[in-house]
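Re: beginner question about structure tokens

> Can someone show what the tokenized structure looks like for a real chain? I only ever see the sequence side.

Sure, here's an example I had lying around. Input first:
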Amino acid sequence: MPLPRAAQRQRGLALLFKFCVLVSLILVMAWSTASSADERDLVAKQTQQWLMAKYDTNGDSIISVDEISQKREKMFSYMDDNGDGRVSIDEYALLDAKKRALIVRARFTKLDANADGILTDEEYIEYYGSFGAFDLDGNGKITSDEINSDTSATSTQVATSPAPKCFLWLCVRSSAH
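And the corresponding structure tokens:
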């Protein structure tokens, strides 16, 4: 039996409130790690783009209660593997396993430079060895100054390595070499 209109509205407002709290927490955590106003502006812009990509399903640059509800319902139906309207611990665990598999595949794709499905020692060293090209003072940390520095070592490393395209934790390396 569908909920009365007032109850649906109240439920939608509660959902919108939770969404706003989530966005606020994300922004506070991101801003706390940024050291300058420019970095905070960049983090805010990236967060906004991420939220729009995730929740603005109709592309109108506005996130509505309906879009949040649709996203939540879609996620629930994705978790409900057998379609009984309920999510068991086994179904939830299956979803977690699928997420983990995606993360592992994304990490492997980053490392597999020639995209042959096999990770070689050279590919592993090439990917993780690039750290040294950016850590100019050799202290084991990469600062924003080192990233922004235009040294020949950094320029050469960036020029010879295909840049992965990333969105949050998911990165894909171009197959064109």
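Each token stands for a local structural state, so reading them left to right follows the chain. The mean pLDDT is 73.
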